[in-house]
Amino acid sequence: MGGNDNRRMSTQSLSDGAVPLTHWGVIRARGEDAPTFLHSQLTNDFSLMGLSEARLAGYCSAKGRLLASFVAWKAAHDEVLLACHASVLASTLKRLSMFVLRSRCKLSDASNEVKLFGLAGPSAHAMAGNAPVWSKSDVAGASVIRLPDAAGLPRALWAAPTGAPACPAISLDAWRWLEVQSGVPVIEAATAEQFVPQMLNFELVGGVNFQKGCYPGQEIVARAHYRGTIKRRMFLFDVDAPAEAGHEVFHDADPGQPAGLVANAAPRPDGSGRSALVEIKLAALDAGTVHLGAPGGPLLTRRELPYPVTSDADQAA
Predict the structure, then answer these.
(1) What share of residues in the chain are helix, strand, coil (percent, to 5)?
(2) Does the pTM of the predicted model rise above 0.85?
(3) What is the pLDDT of residues 218-243, one digit of tens each?
(4) How many beta carbons lie within 10 A of that of residue 55, not counting itself?
(5) What is the DSSP-derived secondary structure letter of residue 65?
(6) What does the pLDDT average to over 5-31?
(7) What residues are paired with 138 via a beta bridge?
(8) End-to-end CA distance of the chain, in Å?
(9) What domains can be seen in the chain, in order of their start residue?
(10) Alpha helices (H) along 73-208
(11) Tell me, what DSSP letter sits at residue 317?
(12) What is residue 231's three-state secondary structure?
């Protein structure tokens, strides 16, 4: 279960290009109160977001469990676009709409009006340049959001009403593998309401602002942060089996109950199994082995995330 990832995938098939993100969709929040309304509902700050910025944000239940995650940006001063996994879009839009009340904000599904593409490698650099992560620029009628790197490659999100970026093509599986390698989790229907943000390292990748005001579940999220009560975190693993979001994992020393849950998974570029972001008990990392689906299931091999996770001692304090 060592941390060194001594396999270096050949990334020729995914090192440069763009792909339509058919597994994502877009919610539009439009109106004078749109930023204020989202600020009151999501885990990040929207009241101060400028037109050249983007946000990673989560939408929590009253129990502090993530219902959805977003990459969000302002299309105009009174319009915010929220890109999320397509499998949670309808339920999230319905739930958010219940709380608009008298706010001057209209929510709608804009997936057919805003086309999303993922950019990787030189194509991402050509569109986003050296812009910092979570910044937004306008390029030829498109909004380009600089995303965290993955597998040593720059990445960006391209969003526009029509057309497509003039780039080579990469496969959706290649992009999904890069999503996993980035260590930035995406909430899917199979994992909705399963995780407090810190269980997915959400605050480590910029998805939680602990200085902002209240939002659903904020007290629970803040308590976990300030009291250091997180006993579970997300780590990167490889497995020679078809892992999927929502699959349970087991530790060999405690076969009677799951030790964790797969958050996201994607085929590895060399065709040998999958890479997966797995939320797991910290105690399960101390010794023994972790398996997919059952105590005797396929072995999970831990790899390095692209960012440091707080030491186990600090996490378990």
Answers:
(1) 20, 35, 45
(2) yes
(3) 999 999 888 877 899 999 999 999 99
(4) 24
(5) -
(6) 77
(7) 143
(8) 23
(9) 14-182 (3.30.1360.120), 189-315 (2.40.30.160)
(10) 86-97, 122-128, 172-182
(11) -
(12) coil
